[in-house]
Each structure stands twice: as structure tokens, then as C-alpha cells.
Amino acid sequence: MATTVLLIEDEPNIKEAVSFILERDGCTVHSLADGATALAAVARHTPDVVILDIMLPGQSGLEVLRRLRADPATAGLPVLMLTAKGQARDRAEAEALGVDRFMTKPFSNREVLAAVRELAGP
Amino acid sequence: MATTRGQLTGSRIRARRQEAGLRQGALAREVGISPSYLNLIEHNRRRIGGQLLGKIAAALGTDRASLAEGAEAALIGALQVAAARDAGTPAPDLDRLEEFAGRFPGWAGLIARQQDRIGAHEETIAALSDRLAHDPFLADTMHEALNTASAIRATASILARTPDLEPARRGRFHTNLFQDAQRLAETMAALVTWLNRAGDARAAGATPTDALAEFVAAHDNHFPTIEAGGDPAALVAGDPHLPDNAARALALAWLRRVAEDARALPLDRFVARGRVTGFDPAALAADFGAPLDAVLRRLGGLPAGPHWPAFGLAICDGSGTLLLRKPLPAFPLPRYGAACPLWPLFQALLRPGMPVAATIDMPEGARLVAHALCTLAAPADFGGPQRAEAVMCVRRVDAAADDGPQPVVPAGTSCRVCPRPACPARREPALI
Fold it and tell me: Which of B2, B44, B68, B71 is the most buried (most CB within 10 A)?
């Protein structure tokens, strides 16, 4: 069955490029550009993997992650954080909240693809 | 006492001894040295410091600092700071510091100047680090640049590694690539402009507050042209101590306050009444019907004169940050790091509107009388923040004087160079 990915990223050209490489790999990609509607989108699409930026309009990626982890239904959902905020304290905060992978921009397409495959599992 | 600034310690000891009517032999016996050795000291042929200087000061009814004040004390103070900030081994021999300064004044001066430059560089680095960490423009710009670079890299990778990309999609990615490249170019141009501006500010070598302190020091906080009704803007324009608009704005604001205080407290009458009242701030405020904080600022701006003491001045905001510094030789104000929290200046912040008077005993033996007051500026609008500002003026008094205001506060300059190990207000260990 195809892996379903929810991509939450407000930079349109990054969203387009990442969507392309994932779809080309066989994933089903749903994307949105703000954090405020992220939880509703997770409930609607039931993704296998969430790719999350930190700097998002409406609600930060870290807050989205915190709320995902606080809900038993989504506490175990694999989350890949993909961000330009690569400072140690951002990484530490994301790890404390239970992020599965933390990648800083600029990223390589291959690394993103490999991370999604790994997080989606066999 | 017939001493002059820059005179060596031995000469001061001799003058003070003669003034006290003591014979050389008597003083030597009292402090436990031979008359010939004291003779060598008094003729500056032997350096003196440490316990012996303390004994001689006590025997002469004075304090160590008054025997080693002026340029020599400033040099020794600078060397103490240099020693405090050095963690290398072997540690400098502090017991022989005064001997070193006396025997090798040129080398000692070089160390002091280098310490000052190192301090200035460290402050610049700290300011730049702070700017890099917290400047919102820089943070936003770097975030934008990284995002755009990510988009370019991801898109270019697809174009390079997907030979069978359908033409419509290829065209779209080319367009995205072009847009992102253009955006990145604009972002980087804005960043270079910002860095150039930051570089200009850095070249000035100081924060605006530091520049104001240098400006005040260059004039000894006394501005005859302002006293005469001159234009503050004319005095500020082109002053070499004020490298940028921010520094000039601070200086202009200060000079306008000086002008306002000068109108309320005309110099000739202020000095005349000061001599009558012993320069008592409360009496002067009552005499002139002027606010006490204006009197304190005015005392801190008196020109040097033979008939009144030199006054130091410090002004801070509600956070305790020093906004204006006019130090005295016996009361240095820290340029790097925070000041001693026991100063009446900071005690005044705790009780706005309540004048605070105290006697300060400095670790080196100098005694000062301090008067301070915190005032609150009314907010510009309902619900606006209330701003506090405290002002303190200090003057040196004889170390034996016991008629100064209470309490007597054992204070210092800042924790890093203060030798009081059991101070209840200590923030961090001393380095000396």
C-alpha cells in the first residue's frame, strides 16, 4: 500500500519539489502551508509520516508536534522535522517533544526520501 | 596635604609625615622598619605596597589609597583588572604589583593599555555575538536564505537527476529555480547591506553609551558653552567621541538636561551656596527650590575647583544598566560587567522617590559619601510602562571621617575585582 505523507511547509517551491520526489517514489502526498489546520489534516488524511517545518504561520511546528504527542491517537505518528532553524536549542526542544528525525535545510532530496521510507517502515 | 596628582607614593609619605610633624625615625619605629629604609622609600628608591603601606597609612592617620592616588592608583587599578582577567599560570604576583608599576612604569602602562584594548575588543565581540543571536533582521534574513537555498537545491536536484521529466513539469521547475535564484540574490544583497552598516557601527569601537561616557570624560562632565546658554547641538556636531547618530542623540539628550539643570541652578550661585552648606544636596535643593535629582546631577557636573571636592556621578535605568558614568580615582565605575549591587544608586531603585544617603568604604581604603535618588517618569499614555531612573553623586572624604551619613557600606567596584570574600551581595567569585 502506498505511503501517505502529510507535508506541512509554507515555502511553496520546497513543497512542490518535496511532493514531486515523494510522489515519484510512490507516496501519496497531502500538503498544507500552516500549522493551525495541521491537526485537522492529520485526522482527515491519517498519514503514515508527517513532514513538519518549525517556522509556520498560525502555529509553530514545535507546537503542532507537542499537540500530536499529547493525543494518544497520534502520539506514535512518525514525524520528520525539516527546518531552517537548526540551532541546538530548536533541535533539543524537538527531541524533547519526541521528534523521530530532525533535518536542517538545505537538505538533499535523497536524505528526505530515505528518511520517509525508514519512518514509514516496511 | 601638599601632594599633587602623579606624585609617587614615597613623596606622598614624606609630605604627609612632615605635615603630621613626625620625625622619620619615629615613623620608622612605629611601623617596624629602619629609618634608612624609610628614607629610601620616601625618596622613591624603594617600592612600597602591601602591608607596609597599610601600616604607614595607619600611622599617618590616612588610608592606603590617599598615599597612592592619582595616575599611579589608576595604573595599579588597571593592572589589578588585567591580573583578574588572566587565568594563566603562573598567576601574577599581586603582592609586588605596586613595586612593578613603580620600577617599570612604561611596561606597566603598556599592560594597562593592552588590557583596555582587550576589554574593548571583548565588549565588541560580545555585542556582535549578541547581535548575531538576537537581531531579528539577521535571523529572518538567514532563515529566508536557507529556505530559498533549500528550494533551489531540491529543484535543481530534480532537474539534474530526472532525465525523463515531462516538459511541462520541467518548465515549471525551471521557472521556480529562476524565481528562487532571484529571491536569494535579493536576500543576500540585503544581508550585505546590513553587515556593512553593522561594520560601520563596529568601527566606532563602542556602544553609544560608551561613547557618551567618553564624551563626558573628555569634558569632565562640565560644559562651559552650555552654562553660557550655547546650543547643545553645536557642541555635539563633529565631536570625535561621538561616532554615530545614536551616540550623538544620547549626548544631545544629556546636554539638554545639563542646560535645564544649569538654568535651574546657575553655576556661580550654586557653588556659592554649596560652599556655605558643605555641598549638602538636601540643603541645596531646599535653597533653590529645585528637584533633588537635578542637584545631584549638578554636583556631578561641577568643574574642578580648589575650594570644593571632586564629585563622581552615575545614572542608571530601572534595569540597573549604567547610562552615564563619571568616575573618580577612588571610585572607578566598571566599563565591562555589572557594578557593585551595594551602591546606594541601586538601593535607591528599590525605593523610588526616597533619597538615599550612605558612606561607602572601598576595599582599597578610600571612603566616599554618596547621595542617590530614584525618580519615576510618568508614562506617555494610560497603561504605558513606567520608567525608573536613579542618579547618584559621590565625593571622597577623609578615611578617618566618621560624621558621614549612615549606614557605612563596605562596597566595591564590581564582584570580579572586589576582594571581599564574605560579601552577602556577591554574584560571582573574585578573580583577585
Answer: B68
